[in-house]
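Components:
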Amino acid sequence: MSKVFVFVDHTNGAVAKTASELLTLARSIGQAHAVIAGTSSDLDAAVPVLNKFGASSITLLESGEINNHPSSAIAIALADLAKSQGAKVILLPSTARGKEIAGRLAVRLESGIITDAIALTPELVSTQSVFGGSTLVHSQIVKGIPVITIRPNAIEPVEAAGSAAIEKVAVAAIITAKITSREPAVRGARPELSEANIIVSGGRGTDGNFAPIEELADALGGAVGASRAATDAGWYPHSHQVGQTGKTVSPALYVACGISGAIQHRAGMQTSKTIVVVNKDPEAPIFDIADFGVVGDLFAVAPQATAGIKARKG
Amino acid sequence: MKILVCVKQVPDSWAEKKLSPAKVLDRESADAVLNDLDEYAVEEALRIVEANGGAEAGHTITLLSMGPERAQEALRKGLSMGADAALHIHDGALAGSDALSTSRVLAEAIKKEQPDLILTGTESTDARMSVIPSMISERLELPHLSFAGDVQVDISAGKVVTKRMTDEGVEAMEAPLPAIVTVIEKINEPRYPSFKGIMAAKKKPITQMSLADLGIAPNEVGTGGAWSEVKDFALAPARGAGVKVVDEGSAGSALVEFLAEKRLI
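Structure:
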């Protein structure tokens, strides 16, 4: 059976959720071959998860420089590996790091690239949801080893216990831009925005007060998002911006509070599975895509919902 | 120092977009504007020049764009903000070019121009692939400093210093020039072109380049040379209109009931 390469993203061995999604997808196409870049200890930490999601084989691209974004070095090593092992297709997560490597890989392999696919058939016909979810496009790569990035949360991970054979390949240390210092983000208990199953977002209607948004997000175990109006006003960090410019998300539940729903915002969240809206303006365009809409004041509705959720959870 | 800023003309990001029967973006269906995210790159170039002695010190800003005839409008916008000159790669054979072709064409133009610093936005708001800067970096073997939320150029040391701002945190980065830097939205507040700027832009040179000028054969790019093909497309099924309630004091609780029914809590 042909090998379907999966590029595994991780932080110090903690495997990103995208890896379980990509491995699940890979198994529907061929043999899932996981490729992870990092150290031996990163590999040791990752192996149980990769086995749980059915990797048939694993290659460690061994590099101590993984936190220095050696995307060119990884792309070169991955391209060589894909050629020597006859990869049928290479899947990467549609994340900042995944796309940086994917672009380079396509150049190195002289292969076609498709980004942000939400589905892929065994015949390698991809589906992309474009223009803010208004249009579905089916495409196929016609030259080279296809390089395809898959949008986080598009595939439902399914476990398939296995025991993968492991090999290690050294990666040349090519670092052209060096990191001189680092301040890691202070990450609270909230999940990462693009991977989150639940997102609660605030917009102009918050008037700068995100407390009810954060409290509802925490009660739901979700991430916090913001509209461009809110980040433009400096009310919430730009890294939380959902929209045409900003992040594209498709969680199981998206709660939009005080967001009118201009195309700019809808383009980033329209493919969410369930959409809940709280807005004072009954004419706000976001109600057109809401599964459950409340015409009301978010400062009354959100805290009541937060209290109700907490009461249920006991 | 010679700064080159890659820009693209896109349909207005606030407008609805659609595909044409030819399975490419229908560029007539919405107003065409300078890609929002490129304005930050143009603004950053202007600020870097201002911080290093201005045009008097011999620094120049050139815009580079590949696109049809009317892409000149987007270049004029950048010129009216204050860039000095523009290069417009315009060739009928380029229509329908994918990311591999586009990055190759831009890389060839950059090779001819030999800039010290290349600035781009994070993505175009139409294709949204955000792979072109890393592809150019890979083709030209130039350092790529991505997600820059701050850019400082040390001309005497021949290096660029950035702050890479992502969900993971902030990383101080540096690389020798020439380098390619991708700036994030909100790195700055792009200026509105002044009336004087708009008038001056009309006299600034836009140099046309064809594929022949770049030594690329027409059949290597465009729809025919593409590495991927669109098989078909369809409008996504419209989301069914859901429940809409007016809050009379208990809508928050009704919302909780809805989430429970959907097994979301």
